Amino acid sequence: MTLALILLLPMLGALLPALSRRGSCRRLASLAALPTVASLLLLLSLLPRVSRGETIITELGWLPSLGLNLALRLDALGLLFALLITGIGGLILLFARYYFEGSASAARFFTLVLLFMAVMLGIVLSENLLFMLVFWELTSLVSFLLIGFHSDRQAARLGARMSLVITGGGGLALLGGIVLLGQAAGSYELSVVLEAGERIRAHEHYGLMLNLILLGAFTKSAQFPFHLWLPHAMTAPTPVSAYLHSATMVKAGLFLLARLHPALADTELWFHLVTLTGMLTLMVGAFVAMFMHDMKGLLAYSTVSHLGLIMLLLGLGTPMALAAALFHLVCHALFKAPLFMMAGYVDRATGTRDMRRINGMWRFMPTLMALSAIPAAAMAGLPLMSGYLSKKMLFGESLRVVAPEWATLVIPAWVTLAGLFSVAYSIRIFHNVYFNGRPIDLPVWPPREPRKAALTPIALLALATLLVGLAAQGLYTMLVHPAFEAARQAELAAFDFATLGGPRTGLMSLVALAGGALFYAIRDPLFRLHARLPEVDAKEIFDWAMRRAIELSQRRVFQLENGSLQRYLTFIMVTVVVLVGVELLAVARWNGGMPLGALDPLTVLAAGLLCLAAIGVVVFHHYRLPALLLLGVTGLFVTVAFARFSAPDLALTQLMVEVMAVVIMMLALSFLPQQSPRESTRLRMGRDLAIAGLVGAGVAAFSFAILTRPQHTISDFFLANSLPGGGGTNVVNVILVDFRGFDTLGEITVLGIAAVAVFAFTRDLHLKERVVDTNPGHWVAEPHPIMLSTVARLVLPIALLVSAYIFLRGHNQPGGGFIAGLITAVAFTLQYMAGGLAWAQTRMLTAFRPLIGAGLLIAVATGLGSWLFGVPFLTSAHGHFHLPLIGEFELATAMLFDLGVYATVVGATLLVLANLGKLMTVAGPGKEIG
Fold first, then answer.
1. Spatial distance between the Cα atoms of 703 and 689, rounded to a whole number of angstroms
2. Ordered DSSP codes for 730-754
3. What is the pLDDT of residues 66-96, one digit of tens each?
4. For 271, which DSSP code?
């Protein structure tokens, strides 16, 4: 329960700032901090247990047959990441309290950041890999909203779209990889997957699953060549950048590879893919960062470089490489967040982020300069700083690589060169901003240092960075080493920082420090040389690729979809004939030996009339009204067929659907000509007749083959378990609300979404006004006849009573929420037709959209209620009760679910009809309905 609270507190806490939109920034930050601090304290309360090697698992069954359970897991690795997410997240909220002061969009920011925190916690705390995937995709969606926070700016929109496309595409690859991984391991539970490493690495699809999982991790953690989205995410507000780069989304891919290390690592393929990707990312990010003039751009590319460094360590496979990766991950989070905060304050004070103009800020911001010196020194890897220790660990592990042969020389030289660049760009951002002469044409003058309270989060993070450098062994022993053991799933010897020195690592550090300082000292000719290189704009390349992809897909789509339903049906029918016909031709005997039932004259007559009505639709399809009436006749005869063959539930549903469909199509016909043009040639009609005849004959033959063979289907299970398992004798309704309740929940959700979409599309839609016939002898002279109005008002209470009866008896006799909802919708539709839109709408007691929402909430709440009793989602309960005077009766929780279905069907149907009917008013859209 504690793990669930850690996850739910920020998720539900996101409602607090959303509901207090008019509050001050201080109040909003305080509200957002409450769930954050609460989750952090809960994590700290579990620290003693987890540090001893205990793994805490909380599991709630949901869809166990699919391997999908709501399971949470907290070990030392998850705890390390969760503490970073909540701890740095709390300081980001404090920073945003001053950054967004006076901004009207502060409430939206705090809401999104809490959601972001929650979904990141979902990733690091998930025990089930499929459950983790849900949060993985949510990080892409929420980060899209955060990066595009300033939606009025084109750069923000493009940056958000780039991040969503790249990370979302990686998420699709990860989905495939996780499915393969679960199949290879035999489970999607991490407890099983992590113990099945040998079996997974020996699996025939290991290479494919590894590539797919790495693709998901590389895109999320901005590895080359998928790193482009991260620098362009700097269009987000600075608090977003600080959180994104230090403790959240970019660390998700690193966490995934650390988590799956026992299952996937220690192979030659892992080494080459992960190590080479990390090396390229490390160098590309470091080189580009040095030549960036934008403060946030430099920090963004430095993040790319440090992510590559950690990825390189994850791939090395040396004894302590993973420990070094985790240690540097913590160090990077602590020094990168305050540097982004510094960039935000300088940007606000000067009006620009261009370091060619921002110079000499020590005169204006001495306190900020002093605080910024510590994280900048840590990023450079200066002695006594945390970054110095983590880079020496990197150098040491690079020297321990023994295979392949090329790596023993290349990797140490490579990381030394990258360290040189990191020193150079760290010196540059500090020296350029605070020294390097005087400011040049600043948009805001004079710059003013933020008040001391606003510098609190930078001061705390700088202090933490300094303490890690001075007391690294304590942090490592308390947090990093237990996480290392949890990641490796083994008890390992702790790293001793007293042994960190050595002549070769010392020489590498000296070369990096001296070389970086020299590189920065001779920067001017290097900058001039760099300026001569062809400029490459990744955003423009991405936009060009997106446009080309869209154009190509549009051409291919338009080649297939030209708006002709006839063409679509032709494709579908021909495909069915080819794919199914080939299999059916192999059938040796069409007659399975079982006799067919005898035909009675009424059944033959009804079948004949059904065929005649269908033929009539084809013959008169150019005359829209007769064709619609004949189409309604075919629907009625299908209803009769359902009733004849003992399917009363289907018959009732078909009847109600047919009535509503005819009403909707009549609304559409009022805007169309009475006749459709004759466009088909004789050749096309002959082709269509041949295809229709072939498909009809095939369906008839297939039906004959099925009906003459003995069948053992799943229906036997439902018939046997409907009463004992679902508490009802109406098998159809028990299937809908119990056995297949999750399907029904999905269907009513789609129905509600479709209805709301119709409402949105027709809200401001203006169609050409219809010509009103004023001829008193015409049938439309009186749009609402008195006879119809009178009868409709008498029918309404009777129909509602019938609807209630059908609803209440549905669990044991034909009926249920769906049918009852359609009956209610038909009754109200009759009121609209009889009294008119305005008359009926003024008498409607509730709006339709809230009714849809209430129905879905009731259905979902019914499913969630089963969790309180420790059973899977949507598990129903039933029992018999006795009351005086009434006697014995049965109650089932499925009735509550059915009530949700009823409300959703009524609301969705009436929302669609009322808004389509609104278009028929001469006054145009008029007042919003629904």
1. 21
2. -HHHHIIIIITHHHHHHHHHHHHHH
3. 667 788 999 999 999 999 999 999 999 999 9
4. I
